[in-house]
What does this fold into?
Amino acid sequence: MRPTGFTMTRPPDDRKSAEPDQPSRGSSLLETPMRVVNIGLQKFADDLVGQDVEVVQVDWAPPARGNARLTNLLSRLMD
It folds into this structure.
């Protein structure tokens, strides 16, 4: 079940497979193009893009930038 408001789009695919995300029976996982979701450090995504890898960058950081005391205080505010 998908959350309300969530949509997933894919580029058009010419393959006639019932499961388009699965490699065909004749190919192996390592022969299909790599697609990456990178969470956090932009440098990782930049390096992959430099190698012609399709990358989706998610800008994420831990709450309060990892400061445990501030994270605890924020947690109390949200309760």
Notes: The longest strand covers residues 35-39. The radius of gyration is 19 Å. The longest helix spans residues 68-78.
